[in-house]
Amino acid sequence: MADNHLSELRFDSLSLQDSVRAGIRDAGFEFCTPIQACTLPIALEPRDVAGQAQTGTGKTAAFLVATFERLLASDPAAGEKKQPRAFMLAPTRELAIQIANDAELLGKHTGFKIGLAYGGTDYEKQRRIIEDGIDILIGTPGRIIDYFKQGVYKLSQVEVAVLDEADRMFDLGFIKDIRYLLRRLPPPDKRLNMLFSATLSQRVMELAYEHMNEPELVRIEPDKITADRVRQAIFFPSNKEKMPLLIGLIREIGEGRIMVFVNMKREAERVESYLNANGLHAAAISGDVPQKKRLRMLMDFQAGDLPVLIGTDVASRGLHVPDVQCVINYDLPQDAEDYVHRIGRTARAGAAGDAISFGCETYAVSLPDIEAFIGHKIPVANYDHSLLPELIRPKSKPRRPQQGGRGTPGGQRSSGSGRRPARRS
C-alpha cells in the first residue's frame, strides 16, 4: 500500500494511554492520516472539533482514539448498571457496523463494552446487550430513539458525542431525530463533541454551533476533495449504448471488485438483470433489501465471491470495502457531492483505483456542476461503437421494470462478443 497519503505525525508521538496504543499497534497504524493529524491534537486536549473529510481518510480512527482517551481519563458514574458514556450516530446501518468493528479492534485492550443499535434485524439481541450495560453506544437514529423511549438506556452520563457523515444525516431526513437526541445529552460544555462530514455546509455548521462547544473547524483543501490516486474518466454513450458499454467494460476489466452506481432503485434492478443474463455475477443493494441479505452481499463482495455490486447513493456512504478496483457511474449523480462519495469507494487509504462515468443523454446535464465542485475537468475516454457486444436480454422481467420500456438498450440474443469493446484514452 502506498504511504504518501499519510502525514508526518506518528501515533506514538501523541500522549495516549497504553491500552489505546496497543489497539493502534494491533491495527497496524504508525503514522496519522492528514485528518487524524489535524483533529486528534484538538480532541485530545480535549476540545470540540468539526472536521470535513471524505470517506476512507481515517476519520473513524480519529474520533475513536479521542473517545477512548476521554473515557479512560474519567471515572464512570456509580449506578445499578453501566449507562452509555459515549454516543455515536451514523446515517446508515453499514456505517454503524463498520464503526463498531473498528471500535472493537482499536479498543480491544481498553475493556470498554460496545453496544450497536440499527434497524432491520436483531431487535431483541441488540436490546439485551444495551440493557446489560455498555460504555459506547453506536447506531442509527431510528432504533436508538426507539430504545431510548422505552427506557432501555439513559443519555445522562454521556461524556462524548460523535456525529459521523452529518451531511448525509440531513439528506436522509434524520435532522429532527438528531436534535431530539442531542437535546437529551448533558450540556455541550460537559462533554467532548466531534462532528465529521464530507462537506461543512451551512446547515451542518448550524447544527455544530447549536449543539457543540465552540468547535474548531478542520477543512480539507478544495484540491483534495477527490482522492489523489483515483484515475477518473468519462464516456459519452447514447442511452441505447449504455448497457452494452457497461457490460463490455466489466468484461475488459476482468478480475477485481467493481461497484456500479445508478440513480434509482428500479434501474439498479434492471442493471442487475442484464449483467447476470450476460454472464456477469452481480447483485443490487438498496435501502429496502433485508438487512441479512445486505450483509451477505457485502461479505461476498469483500471476499471476492461477488465481483460486481450495484447500488444507489444509499450505498455510497459507509461501505468500507478494501481494494475496490473500479467504480462505474452508470448514471451521473444529480448532486455533485454524491460524485465524490461514489468515487471515494475506490483508491482508499492511499491505494489507486479507477472511476469511470457515463455522460449519457439523460444525466450529462449534471457534468458541469460536478466538474465545478471537484475543481477540474474529468478526462474524456472514447470507445469503438463497432466493438460493443450484442446483449442477451434477461429471460424474466426485472422486479420493477420501467413503465413502457423507454430507453431499454440491448440487441438480439447472442452468445456475446469476446472482442475488447472499448478503448480508454
Through-space gap between termini: 26 Å
Tell me the Rg in angstroms.
23 Å
Approximate helicity band: 25-40%
Give the structural class: alpha/beta
CATH topology group of the largest domain: Rossmann fold
Low-confidence stretches: 400-420
The number of domains is 2
| Series of secondary-structure elements, N-terminal to C-terminal | HHEHEHEHEHEHHEHEEHEHEHEEHEH
Number of strands: 13
Strand residue content: 5-15%
Question: Globular, elongated, flat, extended or rod-shaped: what is the shape?
Answer: globular
List the total number of helices: 14
Averaging pLDDT over every residue, what do you get?
86
Largest sheet: spatial strand order: 3-4-2-5-6-1-7
The CATH class label of the largest domain is: Alpha Beta
Overall CATH architecture of the largest domain? 3-Layer(aba) Sandwich
